[in-house]
Amino acid sequence: xxxxxxxxxxxxxxxxxLPAPVRNYALLARFDRPIGWWLLFWPCAWGVLLxxxxxxxADARWDLILWLLIGAIAMRGAGCVYNDIVDADLDRQVARTxxxxxxxxxxxxxxxxxxxxxxxCIGLAVLLQLRWQAQLVALxxxxxxxxxxxxxxxxxxxxxxxxxxxSWGALVGWTELRLDSWQVPAALYAxxxxxxxxxxxxxxxxxxxxxxxxxxxxSARAMGAHVRGGVGAFYAVAxxxxxxxxxxxxxxxLALLALAPAALHLAWQVLTxxxxxxxxxxxxxxxxxxxxxxxxxxxxxxGNA
Length: 305
Description:
With 305 residues, the protein is mainly α. The chain has helices spanning 13-17, 20-28, 35-50, 62-86, 88-91, 101-104, 109-127, 132-139, 142-154, 158-166, 169-177, 183-204, 208-214, 219-223, 227-249, 253-256, 260-271, 279-286, 288-303.
């Protein structure tokens, strides 16, 4: 029965072994699907690494990267809980989301709010590890995060808003270490937004038919028959912005080669994307965990060159 809770769940191991009532809260925070917090964490790591936070010649800030990872897990969970509270009525009308804990009634809304506050307390503990400038940058994300669940109701491109939110960590990571050269994290952030639009468009392919019936907007619906080309275009622009960030930090053509592995991986995603195979888009979406790692390695190389 556990496998029927959420169709695209990866809950195995510890999450699957939890008692049913506790498991519902783990599923509500998407602890069964770590891809979400990886995608939220990687831009945080990029900002730190590009700012030289892992330099072998200075004090490396691995502690900062660990704190940001903990924050990404907690705040992605909090965001999912908030999203499910707001979207409960819509989730009941979409096959893939109808079994989510709040939509199905397995977790009441009041209990979900309490769980949300507990996760935010973990996020607060992470926030207190940052200097005040980075704290202000992090806190500035609250309104965009709160507005995100409503974007699908008012725009065909909620993925752009998700990009604004999921990329915010790049600004936080940079600000914690440096208060100069703002054009560098700005370009890094812009590239991350385009990357998010690309991969979340792939994810939204799973729901195109249900979204059309319910009246929910998405970039996958907006692109229609041109999804592959659209995703490829957003990935290309993302790479261009990341290359610009590298160039602004180190104007050396060799530095741009650090992005080659990530570029090849993104090209593979686009070329092998199968719009008619239900399992393929989900696999390509999850492959962006590797993309994030490859970009992180590129940031580490350029940030310490």
